[in-house]
Amino acid sequence: MPSGMHRGILIARLQVTRDSLRGTAGDVIGFRQSDGDTRMDVELGGQVYRDVWDLRLIPFDSSFAPHYVYSVLTASEELFRGGAPDVQDRADLASRARALFAYHPYREHFAGLACRFIHRWELMESDGKTGWDRSRACTGAYLRDFPAGRYRDELEWLEVQLRHAVYEYEGNAAPAIEQVRAYSDYLDQHPRHGQRAEIEFAIARLCYLVYEMTDGEPQDSAATAVDAKSYRARAESIYTRLSTSDDPGIASRAVVQLFNLRTGRRIYGGSNAW
Length: 274
Fold this sequence. Notes:
The chain is an alpha+beta fold. Helices cover 53% and strands 12% of the residues. Strands 6-5-4-1-7 form a five-stranded antiparallel β-sheet, with no helix packed on it. Strands 2-3 form a two-stranded antiparallel ribbon. A hairpin with a 4-residue loop joins β2 and β3 (21-23). The longest helix is centred in the middle third of the chain and has 20 residues, at 107-126. The termini are far apart.
């Protein structure tokens, strides 16, 4: 590293077209001040770039950097500040942080957060049209490396959703019915799941969708008219039970969905739900 340079970690991508300078969040670079606090000289890939502006980095200090990176990754204003590019930066930063601080106590946080951001990034980029390859690879790696980790329930449930993901129902209840079965089986196998309420909300919403897509349809449809009413009843039962939760967030969501269901506000065709 050139004389006078310090090591730093990019926390957002860096691109200076005139110098063909490109860096990814999580890259380790050399830097030194060149003009007060506004510009820096940067060393990246063996080349020094002078007077670089708009540089978001932190010193590579093993006692400081992991904590600063974690604070960036968990700050909601950072996550939503710049749309998809910023989410991609968070995904890159989390993925690289795990490698940069492989023995730090936060390594599991970085691995789990990387999966969150990769999933959100993939959702924003493709809306699930590509089969969730990156998200499933990340969740699979986390569950393999941290089988009893603190993000296990969250990411295992995400993996179940990705495995049974449906891009479009197009009025066909069959995929939603299969999702209800898969999610219900998963919940039966994990009765003390840390995200049980979220799974129940997902099941209830799918039952609501099945009801809307099959009520009044011919008897040879994916579910009979009688089945449609049973799916509606199941959705109502789940929402009713969740509406009595001690958690005000869960209870409020359930009350809203009960209102939608009981007042005929549709969530699939011609969505007008609150």
